[in-house]
Amino acid sequence: MRVRVLLFAALREATGRSICEVELAAGATVADLVARLESEHSALVGARYTVALNRTYATPSAALSAGDEVALIPPVSGG
Amino acid sequence: MIVIELVDHPIDVGALVASSVDSESGGVVTFVGTVRAATRGRTVVRLEYEAYPSMAASEIEAIAATAKQRFGLLALDVVHRVGILLPGDVAVVIVARAAHRAAAFDACRYAIDTLKQTVPIWKKEVFADGEVWVGDRP
Fold first, then answer.
1. Minimal CA–CA distance to B119: which of B39, B64, B73?
2. CA–CA separation, B84 and B94 (whole Å)
3. Out of B44, B50, B80, B93, which residue is the most buried by the measure of CB atoms under 10 Å away?
């Protein structure tokens, strides 16, 4: 299954990507996706971020579905 | 009534406040967040804001829903600017409206404090000799 990953701010600059598509096995979780992303983008290793799944903050154990929108959210600093 | 906007142009604070005054509320509290010329002893050249717009909107909706429940808020307007801002520019305006002033003050404070913690908006501080994404380093 394929999910869409959005990267923002420091993570966008560190990876040089604002969006990417990742192919995962059925039943994959947020943690599986993070492991994949960190293996492909060394700039993410050790970076500070949380994950949002379909525009809601998610835990590492959250299950992914085809077509999901996942965002890597570095520490926010609006206002 | 909730108004949520991310804009890439200057915010007209006066128009926003005027449009939110009505006969239902007894208090309107406005917070205006502006760009400081110096931070941690360094001179700021500009700030660069970016947002995850769809999630920012849903997180602000959640803030408004909680504020309504907790403080009896009647209405909340949140307008946040993105893009390049200079010292003195208005970055965010929050207008909270309630039947009485205490609720409006409490709700406005809650809204800006929570926005800074949960809403996916980021700012990069650009100095004469470097730049940093705020909060990115411990």
1. B64
2. 20
3. B80
